[in-house]
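Deviation from plan, reported transparently: F0G complex.
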Amino acid sequence: MEFKTIIEPFKMKMVEPIFCTTPAKRKRLLKEAGYNLFLLPAEHILIDLLTDSGTGAMSTEQWAAMLMGDESYAGSTSFERLRRTVEEIFSYKHVIPAHQGRAAERILFTVMCKPGNVVPNNTHFDTTRANIEALGAEAVDLPIREGTHPSSRHPFKGNMDVAALEQLVARVGRERIPLVMLTVTNNSGGGQPVSLENIRAVRSVCEQNGLPLYFDACRFAENAYFIKLREPGYGDKTPKEIAQEMFRLGNGCTMSAKKDGLANIGGFLCTNDDQLAQQEKNLLILTEGYPTYGGLAGRDLEAISVGLQEALDEDYLRYRIKSTAYFGNHIAEQGVPVVHPPGGHAIYLDARAFCPQIRQEDFPGVALAAELYVAGGIRGCEIGTLMFGKHAKMDLVRLAIPRRVYTQSHIDYVIEVVLYVWSRRKRLRGLKLVFEAPFLRHFTARFVPQ
Ligand code: F0G
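Because the crystal trials were delayed, the predicted structure below was used instead.
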């Protein structure tokens, strides 16, 4: 007998209290924070769905491994363990640790990109785009058409538009494209997966044009599980086998271990190219540290080694994907506009459809995120006009689920709050931007109500 209730496949050994505040107090705090939830002290947040990055709970195995951390400056055994784990799953020749994903990105792009270059991706994440643009290169998003329509249903909405990639190569010339990237899962596009069929097709365009293919691998395990569930021929394969097959189609990757590394900090950069690896290590030494620790403690490397394996565990992935879908489906059933189907790490509310009375230039996503905080102490994150400016194809509010942190009753509470805000949606008003930084403005922007 298989029971339908999906339980959390872990039990609690240590607990952290969370604190309740009143709507009146939250209203005041929000005003002080310039209506930007990044600027709120975390102690005033009840359920923090700002990000799934670095916010997960570590397992007993991870904590135990941390005690075994070798803090040697050079040649650490903890690095050797990480190198072997990454080699097994990712299969790339060189593994370069970094303190988090964006450090790996900066090193990769500094070595590979020149001003005037063009980097295609299914959809760049904000730090990826910013790192490319900071070098004077252009970041081009090439999602499939379905990927930019919240309500359209497609099993692999994270796929890259292969015809658009071919057209881009023909238009700008392959000499101007230093690499092609695929983000798995596609975070900015709704946490949607990329199929192996699509990866193979992108790989084939890369091969025809002599272009290297790199993965932004942050949520590779969730992507692998979606392939197992949805792609014909993969139902009997393990998530690890699928991940291995996926990575063999590329030449390297950047990885934020704060996501599917199940660690609170860390990342790495991989490549099969000896010459690039040498240049990357030289840059790493300049700012991150020696190539056997990359700005991390030996114990962090241990936590990542265990975390990468745990993230591929099928019981964990089944719970992870089903519990995110549980949240998304419960609010969608009541009419709340969300990105369909539910993604792996988050549910994305479609703010343009949620509050159509707010014009795009008045930041519907920021206004909706602010209202969720006032109503229920929930912190989400705008992914739209504030984050991407004119590049924003959608205005979404991402409610990201930290890994192994919240229980079903926490999620039931979030569902109740979202439905309450939905019932009062006509009262929502736009916001006026009164301060912005020159790049990555969403972290520090300030607003006043319209
Ligand atoms: N690539 C993707 C697809 C990401 O989602 C992130 C981070 C990064 C790269 C950068 O990694 O944070 O370790 O430097 N995403 C977090 C988020 C911040 O909330 O989605 P990092």
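The chain has a mean pLDDT of 96. We consider this an acceptable substitute for the interim report.
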